[in-house]
Amino acid sequence: MSGSTGPSAVEQFRTGTPEQEALGIKQVEDVVDGYYPRLLSTVKCCLAVFAAMSLGERTKPLCVIFETPSGYGKTAALQMTFPIAGSGLEGFVYRSDKFTPKAFVSHAANVRKEKLGNQDLLPRLENKVLVTKELAPIFRGRTEELTDNFSMLISVLDGKGFTSDSGMRGKRGYEKKILFNWVGATTPLPPATHRVMSQLGTRLLFNEVPAIEPTETELLAYARREDVGAAELICQQVVNEFLANFFRDHPIGSVSAESISIPEERLPELVRWARFIAAGRAEIRYEKESVWEPVAALQPEAPFKIINSLKELARGHALIHCREQVQAADLELIAHVAISSIPAHLRPIVRELRISECVDTARCVQLCRVSDTTARRYLKELSLLGIATLTLGEPKLNRPNSINLADPFRWLRTLEHQVGGVG
To answer: Are the beta carbons of 209 and 46 closer than 8 angstroms?
Structure first.
């Protein structure tokens, strides 16, 4: 590597040739693609979050939440990482199917003070990946509950520990660096949740699992199968074996980030995606006329922390493929995660703008399955966020409103050749 006189960090922990190591991810690809072809990119994103644990000099947890309607495989992908007894993965995963942020540092009144530490979730997560297959309870509820939940999550995801005070227990918590990564799953988030996240600033990235409706032929083929349970176990076994071998060869924190280089020519693309996430997650303000109308977008969050998270995810994806340099395939994952990390109702429009010169109201109605009035509101939101430029139509001439990509985001179309699956 540039500037290095000895073996790279990746080479230092290799136990075989690069070709032999690459067989590990190839086996995962072959097995998962054979049973769950639509989940392959999701599984590899999950593996990338795990692999990022091996990067040194990390300062904050990396968190990716898989989002899709029920039944499209987000939980199936996560379950492949559940440790099988004796697999060697038990020390790297903390499975919690459901929890509340208050569990990070407990103030339970019914537990003796000297035993409260045994109840705390946060110290049990150190140097592990938290896997949570149902996050809907955290991401839904009254605004006050959401604000409370996210304020705690954001503090924990800063990686500096967490302390809190209560009248019953006083001050409790951990004033030290506690690093972990987190993968979870949820059904699509309501706009209210995104509004709360935008107000507080978010450390969460999202990965939208493709919700492609199966054909009747595909459903019949599934109905004829008698190996569904076996398929789940086989995929879990191959993923467990891959991760156990990976952490044997690349212990936690052992891989220098510099040894997985990001070429200078690829950095602008990564930075642009970070700016896109920040712009797309800015808070929209509404005023009520006859209906609630978007009228302004507030200042977006600074993209510095997003850049760091995207760099770690790209490097993790490169690591599982035994690459010492971030390549186009790794940035395809970043592109998918970036678009998945803006509010769900805007994603189909952005994806269409990547391949079409403009999107008008009628096309938005088709893409988002909403009314004409709602479609006009969505187009205006993208305009207020600065992602698109709005052209008002002429109702008397039956000309709809339309949007084009704004100049700062015209690059989205120059990358259209990369739209597709993640390698």
So the answer is: no
β-sheet bridge partners, residue 359:
403
CATH number at residue 217: 3.40.50
Please give the Cα distance from 340 to 347 (Å, whole number). Answer: 7
The region that residue 294 occupies, defined by phi over 0 for left and psi between -120 and 50 for alpha, beta otherwise, is beta
What is the domain count for the chain?
2
pLDDT of res. 169: 66
Domain enclosing residue 49, as ranges:
9-263
Q: Are 200 and 151 in contact (CB under 8 A)?
A: yes
CA distances for 355 relative to 51, 71, 294, 419, 422, angstroms? 32, 29, 26, 9, 17
Residue 291 lies in a domain: no
Counting every residue, how long is the chain? 423
Rounded to an integer, what distance in angstroms lies between the CA atom of residue 135 and that of residue 149? Answer: 12
CA gap 35, 42 in Å, rounded: 14
For the domain that residue 365 is a member of, what is the CATH number? 1.10.10.10
Given a contact cutoff of 8 angstroms between Cβ atoms, the answer to whether 319 and 250 are in contact is: yes
pLDDT of residue 21: 53
Q: Which amino acid is at 183?
A: V
Angstrom distance (rounded) from CA 198 to CA 299: 10
The model's pLDDT over 160-211, given as tens digits with 9 standing for 90+, comes to: 998 888 766 678 878 899 999 999 999 998 888 888 888 766 789 999 998 8
Positions in the chain whose pLDDT score sits under 70: 1-23, 108-110, 112-115, 117, 167-169, 200-201, 290, 395-397, 415-423
Question: Which helix H or strand E contains 286, and what residues bound it?
Answer: strand 284-288
Residue finishing a domain among 237, 263, 289: 263
Task: For tokens 């009228």, name the residue.
Answer: 295
Backbone phi, psi, residue 215, to 5°: -80, 165
Task: Give the rounded distance of the alpha carbon of 69 from its chain centre.
Answer: 16
Tokens of 342: 């803006």
Per the CB < 8 A criterion, the answer to whether 142 and 198 are in contact is no
DSSP 212: P
Position of tokens 């083929």? 221
Listed residues 263, 294, 310: the one ending a domain: 263
**Location of structure tokens 């609630």:** 292
Residue 258 β-bridge partners: none
C-beta atoms surrounding 368 within 10 Å? 18
What pLDDT score does 164 carry?
82
Q: Report, in angstroms and rounded to the nearest whole number, the Rg of the chain calculated over CA atoms.
A: 22
| Residue 419 confidence (pLDDT) | 44
